[in-house]
Amino acid sequence: MDANKGKGDHVLQNPGGQMDRPVNFHFLESMLPKVVKRRVHALKRLQVQCANIEAKFYEEVHELERKYAALYQPLFDKRRDIVTGAVEPTDEECEWHSDREEEEELAEEVKEKAAIEDAKKEEATPEEDPKGIPEFWLTIFKSVDMLSDMLQEHDEPILKHLKDIQVKFSEPGQPMSFTLEFHFEPNGYFNNAVLTKVYKMKSEPDASDPFSFEGPEIIDCEGCQIDWHKGKDVTVKTIKKKQKHKGRGTVRTVTKQVPNDSFFNFFNPVKASPDGEMDEDSEFTLATDFEIGHFFRERIVPRAVLYFTGEALEDDESFEEEELEEGDEEEQDEEGDDDDDDGDCDPKKEQPQPAECKQQ
């Protein structure tokens, strides 16, 4: 086999000794004896049945997620109350022993000494304790690349009013979906207390391509109408344009509203085409939207505090570096093939991916 061929390419040895040539699966199947081909068709029917059973499995997983979401919710409600300052955690609830405890204690000592020195220089007025954890969600948005790419400067004052993000799963008997709920405190930008984004899913093999089934997938999403206060809609901007009358030559200035980059465009998504026909830009935009929705559901909401502190980001970066190092090693192995005759190592062997990275 040609070493430059990709893993998806298949070749058939030519009995006449000519150069190997790629062969697609349909051609390979057509070359089988009729009785063997007949049995292969029987195996394919069994495979479709397996895909249908797998689809039912994922439907039950969805029900299990919904059940456990109800168990998580009281903890997430307590998180919201602490973040917003509605409750103050007890001393016992605040006990936490970190691996960096000694480092933190040393930093605290340095802070105390600096505070004493400052107090000696001038009498400072005591600052009022901040309420809850200020800018909790905004800090997360600014820290996560996927979200910070959507974030604009004019979005930040609005997201300071974000109290909580919740995930709600569809009820039993309803089409599979999940809803992201963004809860806001009263603010001067819009009247909505909650902004929602629904992600519709399916867990069934495609009739035209059943073997491509790998579990539930997001197939569409639906946002909500934001009731903006007058002049506060950050998803549009007003521009002025001069127009000259062709006959009289007079000039007038007109104003018009045009779309503006904003995180809040997230609630007005591109709609999936019923016939599946979409231009490349729309397909990319929709795929990115699905990825962001999945990331909110699987990572941001369940592990919010770790994204706030940056610990989850460190884990992500460590994983990426490890992947890169493995890739470098594979490259080196390929370059050193001439010196290594053991044949025990296959540099093209695919590395297993973590389950949490699988796109649903």
From TrEMBL:
Q: Which UniProt keywords apply?
A: Nucleus
For the keyword Magnesium, the answer is no
GO CC: one term? nucleus
Is Nucleus given among the entry's keywords?
yes
Main localization is: nucleus
BP term (GO), one: nucleosome assembly
Q: Where in the cell is it found?
A: Nucleus
In which residue ranges is the amino acid composition biased (Acidic residues)?
A: 312-344
Note down the stretches annotated as region Disordered: 312-360
Q: Which domain of life is it from?
A: Eukaryota
UniProt similarity note? Belongs to the nucleosome assembly protein (NAP) family.
User: What name does this protein carry?
Assistant: Nucleosome assembly protein 1-like 4a
